[in-house]
Write a structure and sequence with these properties.
elongated, Arc Repressor Mutant, subunit A, 5-stranded parallel sheet, alpha/beta, 12 strands, Rossmann fold, 2 domains, 4-stranded antiparallel sheet
Length: 228
């Protein structure tokens, strides 16, 4: 089985060296880029499974790298920053990063976060064509568009079902309201983005306990499905 590949984009040689050693110790292949331009080139050349991306980079900063990578590909991204302000974390997540780590950090923690993200991605790939989803108390059939909570049928509107299906098939992934709007209503929809909040509220009410608690609000960003 081929090793998973991690691309580290950071101009700090010491951080690159330490992270490389930790990732290699855990069995990953590691590629290094020291600026945003070469980082983007290595994404194309190396096809990494995950990217560790610093924000403060020469030539092209991490924000721009992330913008360019999204939405063309879905390679998971962990952003690194010396800034701990909430606005920076939110900005990173809104740009499509999967996680955000503030410097100074534990290299072991970065590797553990990467492993968790890659596990999630692997599960999503395996479940891509899945038409039936089962969670404790919850059953969803894509073909019939049926939803059951504790074996009791729940009537959802088409948009509520589509929202639920996207969330449950991407457990722990945070979706912005705009992303959900684009996926469910389409890119040509020009309505109020807060329609997502209204539908989530209705969806939670119909699903009831404990399922309503699986749909988590990520303040300032959007929503995710979490049943662990």
């Amino acid at each position: 089985m081929a090793k998973q590949k991690v691309l580290i984009i950071d101009d700090d040689q010491h951080i690159c060296k330490i992270l490389k050693e930790y990732f290699q110790f855990e069995g990953y292949d590691v590629v290094i880029a020291n600026n945003g331009k070469s980082g983007l080139e290595k994404v194309d050349d190396e096809k990494p499974d995950l990217i560790v991306l610093d924000i403060m980079l020469p030539e092209i900063d991490g924000w721009e790298v992330c913008k360019e990578l999204r939405p063309q590909n879905n390679i998971p991204i962990i952003m690194l920053s010396a800034k701990s302000e909430e606005d920076n974390r939110i900005n990173g997540l809104q740009l499509g990063a999967d996680d955000y780590v503030t410097k100074p950090f534990s290299p072991k923690e970065v590797v553990l976060r990467a492993r968790s993200i890659l596990r999630r991605v692997d599960k999503q790939k395996k479940a891509k064509d899945k038409k039936l989803v089962n969670f404790p108390h919850l059953k969803i059939d894509k073909n019939s568009r049926g939803v059951e909570v504790d074996q009791k049928k729940i009537d959802l509107t088409p948009k509520e079902f589509d929202l639920l299906w996207i969330l449950v098939n991407n457990p722990n992934k945070v979706f912005t309201r705009q992303e959900l709007l684009n996926k469910v209503w389409g890119y040509d929809y020009f309505g109020d983005i807060r329609t997502i909040d209204t539908h989530i509220k209705s969806l939670r009410k119909k699903l009831g306990e404990p399922i309503e608690t699986y749909i988590k609000t990520v303040w300032g960003v959007g929503y995710k499905f979490e049943n662990e």
